[in-house]
Amino acid sequence: MEKIVVMIGPPGVGKGTQARLLAEHYHIPQISTGDILREMARFETKLGLQLKSIMASGQLVNDEILASVIQTRTTQPDCSSGYILDGYPRTPSQARTLEKLARGQSKEVRLVSLSVPREALMKRLTGRRSCSKCGEIYNLYFRPPQKEGICDLCGGVLIHRVDDNEETVSTRLTAYEQQTAPLIEYYGESGRLLSISGERAVDEVFADICSALEQ
C-alpha cells in the first residue's frame, strides 16, 4: 500500500524542510497547506480576505476549508504513488477526515512528529527573514545575512512575514500545544507514530526519518 506521510510539529520545527527532502528522495509531491493557503490569501476574494485575517491573528483555518483544499489537491495524478502532507491534519477531527480520504485512495497514513524546545522555536520564527526575489531563507539569530536586510545570493530585499512577530508566534505555538499535540496520542495508539528530534543538523534529522519510514 502506498503511504501518506504526515509531518507534524510546532511552527518552526523544520517540517517544510524535511518534507521537501522526502519529496525529492521518494519522488512524491510535498503538499504544504500553509503554502496553498498563503497563496489563496494573496487574492482579494471573500475567501482570500478571510484567510488573510485568520493567519495574521495566528488562529487556525477551519476544518471545512482545509478538507476541501486537501481533497482537491490529492486527487491530482502526481499523488497516485503517495504524498507528503505538511500542516495537515492539525487536530484529531482532521485526522479522522484524512483516514476516510486515505481509505478511499487505498493509502496508509504514517505520522512523523518533529520536536524542538519552545525557546528555540521562538528564535527560529521571530528571527526568520526571506528574500523577496529568490525566496532564500535567513535567520537573525542562527543564519544572518552578510548585509542587514539584503539577500547574500541575489541582493533582494529581505522581508519579515506578518505572522512571524512575537505575539502571533506565541499564539501559534499555544494553538499547536492545545489542538495539534493530541495527534501524537491518536497515531501513537495505532503504532503509526514516528517521533524524531528536530534539534540537530538537517541531514541527521532526514536520515532518521527515512530509516523510520522504511522499517
Report on this model:
With 215 residues, this protein is of the alpha/beta class. The chain has a single domain, classed as 3-Layer(aba) Sandwich (Rossmann fold), CATH 3.40.50. 47% of the residues lie in helices and 17% in strands. It is built from nine helices and eight strands. A five-stranded parallel β-sheet has the order 2-3-1-4-8, sandwiched between helices. Helix 1 packs across helix 9, helix 2 crosses helix 3 and helix 6 packs across helix 7. The longest helix has 15 residues.
Keywords:
about 220 residues, alpha/beta, Rossmann fold, 5-stranded parallel beta sheet, globular
Q: What is the chain-wise order of helices and strands?
A: EHEHHHEHEHEEEHHEH
Indicate the overall shape: globular
Distance between the termini: 14 Å
Number of domains: 1
Structural class: alpha/beta
CATH architecture annotation: 3-Layer(aba) Sandwich
Give a summary of the structure in a few sentences.
The protein contains nine helices and eight strands. The chain has helices spanning 15-26, 33-41, 46-56, 63-74, 92-104, 118-126, 166-180, 182-188, 202-213, and strands at residues 2-8, 30-32, 83-86, 107-115, 128-131, 137-139, 158-159, 193-197. A five-stranded parallel β-sheet has the order 2-3-1-4-8, sandwiched between helices.
